[in-house]
Amino acid sequence: MKVFVDSSLLVYLNVKMPYSEAKLVEEFWLELMLKHSLYTNILVLDELIYVSKKKYGVRFEETIEFIDKAVLPYVDVISIGLSEYIGAKKLMKEYGLNPSDSIHLATIESYGLQAIATEDEDFDRVGIKRIWVKE
To answer: pTM for the complete prediction?
Structure first.
């Protein structure tokens, strides 16, 4: 399956967490990498860098190293452009999604992806399959 990787998953992989929680997230990540084709966009990487620093105090350099070593070798970064913006405008109006989630959904639609790996339950109401860590 073609799966879009949202920033929530990458943030959890990038920050310090209690062992039991980290283990669940890492096992989920491994399963995704082994069983699916993974995609993201540059907006997700921006969110990863920003949230890791602002909410968890992870230095930019550490997150960039994480992206280079643990994300880019396994996840294709797909382009976003004018068509995704146009699609996102419609999705914001139709579903009341925030702008970045609308861009992610428009990207998913543009590239024919089948699911999103995210904890963000807002995606449950938009008709895309959402997959997340099983506790």
So the answer is: 0.95
